[in-house]
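yo

u said u wanted the structure for the complex thing, so here. seqs first:
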Amino acid sequence: MNVRRPMATVAELMRPRSVAIVGASEDPGKFGGRILRTLLEQGFPGDIHPISSARREVLGRRAWPSVADVPAPVDLAIMAIPREHVAGVVGQCAEAGVRGAIIVTSRFSDAGDEGAALERELVATANAHGMRILGPNCIGIVSPANGFALCPSPVLLGRRVLEGHIGLVSQSGAIMGTLMDRARSGGIGFSHCVSVGNQADIDVCEVVEFFVEDEATRVICSYLEGLRGLRAGTAFLAAAERAQRAGKPWLMVKAGRTEAGAAAAFSHTASLAGSQAAFEAACRERGIVLLDDPEAMMLLAAGMSRFPARKVDGVALLSPSGGGCALGADRLSDIGVPLPAPSASTAGTLRTMYPTALLNPIDIGAANDGAAMSYTTRTHELLLADEAIDLAFTVITAAPDITRFAKMAAEGVEKSGKPAIMALLPGEAAEGARQALLQRGILHTQTLDTAIRAIRGWREWSAAMRFAPAARPPQLMRRTALPSGALGEQETKQLLAAYGIPVNRSVFVAGAAGLRQAADGLAPPYVLKIVSADIVHKSDVGGVAVGLGSVGELESAARTMLERIAAGAPGARIQGFSLQEQASGELELLLGAKHDEVFGPMILIGAGGIYAESLADTVLATAPVSEARARGMLSRLRIAGRFPGTRGRPAVDVAAAAQAVSRLSWLAADGGASLRELDINPLLVGRAGAGCVAVDARALLAASSNGAGSAIREEVQ
Amino acid sequence: MNVRRPMATVAELMRPRSVAIVGASEDPGKFGGRILRTLLEQGFPGDIHPISSARREVLGRRAWPSVADVPAPVDLAIMAIPREHVAGVVGQCAEAGVRGAIIVTSRFSDAGDEGAALERELVATANAHGMRILGPNCIGIVSPANGFALCPSPVLLGRRVLEGHIGLVSQSGAIMGTLMDRARSGGIGFSHCVSVGNQADIDVCEVVEFFVEDEATRVICSYLEGLRGLRAGTAFLAAAERAQRAGKPWLMVKAGRTEAGAAAAFSHTASLAGSQAAFEAACRERGIVLLDDPEAMMLLAAGMSRFPARKVDGVALLSPSGGGCALGADRLSDIGVPLPAPSASTAGTLRTMYPTALLNPIDIGAANDGAAMSYTTRTHELLLADEAIDLAFTVITAAPDITRFAKMAAEGVEKSGKPAIMALLPGEAAEGARQALLQRGILHTQTLDTAIRAIRGWREWSAAMRFAPAARPPQLMRRTALPSGALGEQETKQLLAAYGIPVNRSVFVAGAAGLRQAADGLAPPYVLKIVSADIVHKSDVGGVAVGLGSVGELESAARTMLERIAAGAPGARIQGFSLQEQASGELELLLGAKHDEVFGPMILIGAGGIYAESLADTVLATAPVSEARARGMLSRLRIAGRFPGTRGRPAVDVAAAAQAVSRLSWLAADGGASLRELDINPLLVGRAGAGCVAVDARALLAASSNGAGSAIREEVQ
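structre next:
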């Protein structure tokens, strides 16, 4: 068959009418044995074709020597065979018109350059016939929604993955197995689970795109170590934006966040790390929730799939004990979760049951029915009915009857129609409670940590969904012709001014004689800086003078400056002076723009001044950002504590700073790859209403065809 | 019986020969029913006396109308009776010579002032006869080491608390029940569990003191919400120091860390919060490990009790999968845990099994035996035998045979004689593995979070145990006569200089005419500051001049300064000038000393300069601190990133800063309660070897009998 077929899609591969298992066996100790056994246990309605060089029947099914021998079309083939046979079998499959080949076998690009070359050949062979490759080094597909599994994971033997609305895509087969099993134990089900392994052809992003379209999938879960290929960043951002537009939450455990983690991750996959900070920024802005923990991801996914589109902000904390309330309140405080006071009418009703206690958190054991806990249902129901409460967090400690408490709490939650997460802190004594919650489909876990991660994730996603994408301000023109080369202070400030970012006024003056005239257009006090390409640290040689109140002081300062430099830096060639209006403000910020090779234009903000570097107090975002998002970025800085005003100092103009950040982000977006980097340091932010001003700045743009950049480089120090 | 008996001790109460249950019942739905039933189930060897107003026999035991009617001595009585009967029963017990009364009943000091008054009367009545009170509002004692339980917790019915070497003291009965049950499910046992409730008489500290002496107890666990009483801080520090000297780890879950948590905690107990920051500092320095999580506390306690005195620093990370390695490595990185490379000889042996993979973390699935995992035992054994490795962290993901993997891993760990913590990430598929680890006594948990908290805690304790207590430097005299009142810059600097803290030289000069002579003894450049009690912000009115290079400049600056002040602050009374040598340095620190009402003298360090407050980059410690501990404090500052030198700036003199911190801490220790507060801001720290200097400082000392402090207050701005 040499007919050129259209390229298969993931959606097509997820609905096979017939499958082939290459290397089928009856031995569950072997990959091929587990795959066939699991497939039979799941009850696949289509045709099953075992392929075996040795046997003509496997587990009661007619077997064939090769895919080419199967007398009917095969949609999907899976192979767990020695590496040296893979290329041949892939070729046979492609020739036979198979639409997708799942390669379980490892030691391709995960094992070095030679394996990577082999892998590229496999993909080329397959794609030439429209066939797609999943893997290599993967564990295939488990699709409860479509009733089939082609997967060698031992966790499936004798145990069925539950059907639900979570789509899972994982780079690691072991982690996919772990998640499927952990989820089943918690009563959590999946639409489809897809293991992409080395991502030689089908990658995480393509599977996510399928999940976005798939009706059975409400929430997307992913285990990721790194993206693959040069266009991966763009594809990733596009997939994230599609998921966000579709309102489908995308949760992620990203391994390799740290240097040690990345070393471990890249020792067994063939992925690009990219910049972790850029990756996290890209995720945060697009509502991708980074969980860091497999169990927390499954718990949150279960919640979001049972309560689609539910946003979470305010939480009610309940416990049968004061100790449970105190522990829970500390943990929620740590992650900034508000415990809203119930409305007056809710509070009025609750007060009849709890005459003296706090009403959120609420110690159900402190009710005036004493140890009977008979208000448990009503308390959950009442609090959840309150407008300010989106979710109940119930910390279950030892109690007179833990099972009864859990059942009553579940009943209240069910009546409310809102979600709850229950943390079961005892051990065996809470087993009855766990079973009760499992049966009722109430979200639960056995550690505070897991619950807290899930609550934080739900709130992060809810907050991200409120952000609208940045729209270009009407007064802001798109610039297509940016200057190029290394830009000095003067030129960079011109560029900033063109984007509506305030700069302090400054003039280049070739000699001291021109200062008087130049000062005419500026308001004192003045700043005078020497301009010399030979002087790197101007202030060290007396090349900066500030606070000059008059033209007289200015001229006197210029003379002193030239004398000092003649003595301190005798060989320096002096080009002239930069005469500036002296800006004043309350707070110094650092603003930067750069181009990330994976995620494109980025913007960075941070604390300015001398501690800028050692504090590492920075926030990164993909550009452009709206002013609202810029405010959000500013609020995440550590120095945000200074914004509202502190002891003796006034509040600062956060609105002006946010506008500057947003406008710089449009500059970054317009500049694209040609804007290598641009730094404003400092942006001086004044008191509220007083605006902000860029006091120093420099930039580096890729040389474009129209020349080698400007001749003025006076301020690149 | 009116014979005055000696006051009973906790040790005495923990070994009763006879017990009475007041309010005994056959109904396990009642407190008195659960207490008796549990006591009988535990097989107490002493005499059991049910007390019941209605029955003459309870559960086959002869019952008495009151404690007074029991014809034999009663050592310990427990009462779960209506509040209005408690005082009468306590009186009867005291009269009858009972040594300890456990009061389960609540609504005493936990319910307001009236209850608190009642509670004080109970203690007075008891103590007058040498009887001690445990509670009220507690769940009593469970003592597997001494074979008895007087405890109404429902988690005990039909389930035995395991015997082990962990002493648990808890303020919350519900949390104690939770911990006992969770521990049993994890195969973890206790020497004794004591619930102290309202701590009316016996408090957490007294129980800890008992645990320190108790041979059956190797590790102390505590759930604490707050200390009680004015001397509680002193008692707490003393108990902590005794535990530290005895080498017994003290682990703690402290609820009420946050505002919301404290509100929840204090709505149901009667404790003082004290300063949370001071509390945490006191704990950290004395090796008390704050865990924030009940399960993590039990896991760590189990590890420490099975491996007494074992210190943990370097960790080996193992997993059957690369994904498990990557996840684990990220988490360990987050908490700064090193993954040391194995020694050359260990590495040589491992290389034969793992030709290309990383050796720490180690992906056992990447061994050259492929999926067989037959190297699991040997790999654990080899890594743990390495000198740099103190603990193995095994992240168990899905694997071909999870149970076999766990057994083999356990075998390797057992051979090594070192501890391991295993995180079982799958669900039911890992149940066999969990059972295997439980049987073998290998520490395990089902979440990464719990394991990570335990590892962090073990390392924190190990680090704290390396610190020696601060010894007064031989050249440092103890000062007993400190000045008093509000001290200005000059006086405070004199005090600092007396404690060996470098200050920049400065002279008070009454008028401009004296400047020339005063400058003779100082080196330029000079700083000149106006001295006037009427001027709060000197620089705002031109009252500070810096960088004055000569006496001429100095005199000129003084004239200008007086003119400006005459214009800007016309009414200000001028006392004179402060003439100082101008100091220079690389980094500004803030050093403070104060007296905490609960924990005594404290020292605080932080980033100096304009961001000092908004960054909240501070570290607190109880004084005195050794120079080594001062270095540790400095290293915990965010700006510690600046110490080794950053782009273009040299390393700073951390040794000199640590010496200044330690010396200020001795000043704080000597000053005691009379030193209300002392601030050095900034301490200017020079480049390495260049020392540091206190540039500005002020202090407030309690007025002593010898006068109202100094007349010189020139610098209190």
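Chain B is about 35% helix and 20% strand. The longest helix of chain B spans residues 448-466.
cya
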